[in-house]
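User: Let's play a game. I give you a shape written as tokens, and you guess the letters that built it. Ready? Here's round one.
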């Protein structure tokens, strides 16, 4: 078995030219995809500048050729599903099928409420996402439809253009057994297991239906054994609370990821703990990627 690797690149603490340069380098080096976040303020640092995720993806659509563009994950509450479907189909056509559509029902409820998107329980947000996913399916058919739900009512709606390949891969992230995983089983093409739940991967996987498996891992990559301790210490300081942290030399990182490929993981979405410096991207591409393919 083999797996692809996507770069998770939260669009903060970097100006746009830096983001663009790292995406172009990731494309050159053979990364499958680049994944942005979808927040109005960074959850752990509201004082930082934070570019809007969809706009960043759209700006990169015309300056890239092969790399897929995506988000981990778009917040359902921020966009009406008909508008989201139109945005997604448009970008997918422009990129000739390079959009991956990552969705979630909202990991930071306080952010949703502070910016005026309304108060709701987690169960209500999950139910709203369920309706969004149903509407996306209908919009992507290109046929006229009616929809009557608890949150949305559409009459005589139609989605044109259709996505480049007729549909767009849906990635749902999260590990909640009561609310999220049932949505994965009903709607998702991919289940993205977040880093905090990787230790429960074998337990949770049977609840995700036929969805393909991707896993998020923060990675601290040391160039050699001499620099290992320093890289590991920094990675633990920055990402230790995420869970699923993988650190070490290229051989150690490759072995850890390869073990999960052998368990069925087909895609890794990786935030590098040094924020994806060019040196780290090149080292990973040269010494880790080949072991996963």
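Assistant: Ready! My guess for every position:
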């Amino acid at each position: 078995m083999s797996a692809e690797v996507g770069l998770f690149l939260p669009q903060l603490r970097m100006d746009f030219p830096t983001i663009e340069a790292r995406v172009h380098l990731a494309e050159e080096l053979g990364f499958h995809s680049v994944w942005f976040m979808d927040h109005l303020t960074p959850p752990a640092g509201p004082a930082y500048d934070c570019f809007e995720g969809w706009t960043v993806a759209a700006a990169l659509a015309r300056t890239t050729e092969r790399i897929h563009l995506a988000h981990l994950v778009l917040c359902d509450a921020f966009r009406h599903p008909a508008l989201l479907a139109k945005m997604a189909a448009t970008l997918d056509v422009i990129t000739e099928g390079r959009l991956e559509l990552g969705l979630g029902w909202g990991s930071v409820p306080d952010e949703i409420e502070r910016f005026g998107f309304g108060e709701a329980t987690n169960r209500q947000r999950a139910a709203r996402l369920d309706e969004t996913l149903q509407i996306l399916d209908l919009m992507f058919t290109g046929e006229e439809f009616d929809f009557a739900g608890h949150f949305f009512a559409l009459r005589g709606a139609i989605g044109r253009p259709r996505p480049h390949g007729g549909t767009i891969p849906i990635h749902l992230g999260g590990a909640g057994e009561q609310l999220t995983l049932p949505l994965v089983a009903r709607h998702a093409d991919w289940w993205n297991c977040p880093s905090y739940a990787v230790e429960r991967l074998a337990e949770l996987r049977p609840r995700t239906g036929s969805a393909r498996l991707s896993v998020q891992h923060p990675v601290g990559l040391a160039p050699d054994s001499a620099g290992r301790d320093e890289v590991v210490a920094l990675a633990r300081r920055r990402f230790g609370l995420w869970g699923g942290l993988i650190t070490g030399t290229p051989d150690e990182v490759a072995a850890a990821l390869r073990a999960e490929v052998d368990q069925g993981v087909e895609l890794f979405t990786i935030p590098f703990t040094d924020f994806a410096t060019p040196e780290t991207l090149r080292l990973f591409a040269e010494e880790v990627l080949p072991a996963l393919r």
